[in-house]
């Protein structure tokens, strides 16, 4: 049995759909269960250490996705992010360790890197989070990998870049620019671009992310964090033009002031993911965008 914390979320629901075809899955989430996923569901928080300990019995491995993800909210109030993202992860690790579960695959974030000092961003790049959210993810990641050293676990920490795909809620703080553009185009609204649109991002499809977690569960763990991305960059403006072309519409963005702390360029190095996990992204951006735009229009 695989336990997936945060299994009701965007990435979690996609991953649980894949995992449930292979065996038993138990979703642990504070939110309602995902639609159409054949998995056991338990409504519980990663902050409830005693309940986590009970739920962990009989598990073969854990995918730990549960987290708070609103960067702005973390700046306004850092405590919830520390509690859920750092302490919650420690609760998961301790419950797993005491239950004899050897593998925890953890969803870290590219937010741990902060402003890039070199490109592509590989795992040797300095970490310098710009928000309490990023710091909480880095703290949790280090606990995950420390448990390999201290307790002989086979954990992995996957640093996810910009994940996109169907089922992402445009109103969620986690929602990326692709989902927001897609909804704006479909609704006939002006897509919003902050700054000049020349900032670049590395977009990875949720199906590739789900596959990466499956590979992590099949691996013997890694003492280094691992980037999960496409390894390709595209500017926000080029992204919008591509999406509008697919929808048969002309791009007419509304440009707003650049947001404070906006990273100018971002693209991941993914050679370690290939070496350690055998990970190769399969979904090209054009294909992923075509599926999203066709579904909305």
Description:
With 297 residues, this protein is an alpha/beta fold. The chain has 2 domains: 2-161 and 206-228, NAD(P)-binding Rossmann-like Domain (Rossmann fold, 3-Layer(aba) Sandwich), CATH 3.40.50.720; 163-201 and 231-267 and 283-296, UDP-galactose 4-epimerase, domain 1, CATH 3.90.25.10. It contains 10 helices and 13 strands. It has helices at residues 10-19, 49-56, 71-76, 78-98, 132-151, 177-187, 206-218, 236-247, 271-277, 285-296, and strands at residues 2-5, 25-29, 40-43, 61-64, 104-109, 156-160, 162-164, 192-194, 200-201, 203-205, 226-228, 234-235, 254-256. Strand 1 (2-5), helix 1 (10-19) and strand 2 (25-29) form a beta-alpha-beta unit. Helix 6 (177-187) runs parallel beside helix 8 and helix 6 (177-187) packs parallel to helix 10. The chain is globular.
List the helices and strands and how they pair.
Blueprint: E1 2-5, H1 10-19, E2 25-29, E3 40-43, H2 49-56, E4 61-64, H3 71-76, H4 78-98, E5 104-109, H5 132-151, E6 156-160, E7 162-164, H6 177-187, E8 192-194, E9 200-201, E10 203-205, H7 206-218, E11 226-228, E12 234-235, H8 236-247, E13 254-256, H9 271-277, H10 285-296
Parallel strand pairs: 1-2, 1-4, 2-3, 4-5, 5-6, 6-11, 7-10, 8-13
Antiparallel strand pairs: 9-12
């Amino acid at each position: 049995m695989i336990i997936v914390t945060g299994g009701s979320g965007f990435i979690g629901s996609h991953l649980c759909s894949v995992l449930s075809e292979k065996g038993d899955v138990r979703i642990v989430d504070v939110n309602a269960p995902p639609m159409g996923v054949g998995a056991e569901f338990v409504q519980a928080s990663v902050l409830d250490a005693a309940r986590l300990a009970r739920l962990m019995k009989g598990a073969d491995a854990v995918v730990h996705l549960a987290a708070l993800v609103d960067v702005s909210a973390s700046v306004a109030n850092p405590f919830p992010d520390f509690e859920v993202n750092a302490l919650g992860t420690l609760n998961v690790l301790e419950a797993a360790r005491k239950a004899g579960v050897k593998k925890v695959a953890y969803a870290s974030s590219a937010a741990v890197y902060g402003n890039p000092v070199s490109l592509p961003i590989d795992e040797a790049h300095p970490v310098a989070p710009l928000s309490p959210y990023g710091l909480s993810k880095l703290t949790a990641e280090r606990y995950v990998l420390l448990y390999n050293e201290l307790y002989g676990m086979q954990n992995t920490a996957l640093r996810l870049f910009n994940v996109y795909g169907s089922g992402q809620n445009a109103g969620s703080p986690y929602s990326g620019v692709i989902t927001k553009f897609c909804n704006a185009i479909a609704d006939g609204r002006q897509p919003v671009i902050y700054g000049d649109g020349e900032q670049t991002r590395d977009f990875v499809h949720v199906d590739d992310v789900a596959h990466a977690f499956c590979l992590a569960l099949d691996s013997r763990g890694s003492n280094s964090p691992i980037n999960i991305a496409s390894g390709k960059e595209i500017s926000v403006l080029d992204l919008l033009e591509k999406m509008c072309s697919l929808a048969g519409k002309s791009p007419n963005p509304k440009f707003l002031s650049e947001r404070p702390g906006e990273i100018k360029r971002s693209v991941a190095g993914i050679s370690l993911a290939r070496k350690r996990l055998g990970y190769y992204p399969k979904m090209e951006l054009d294909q992923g965008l075509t599926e999203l735009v066709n579904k909305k229009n």
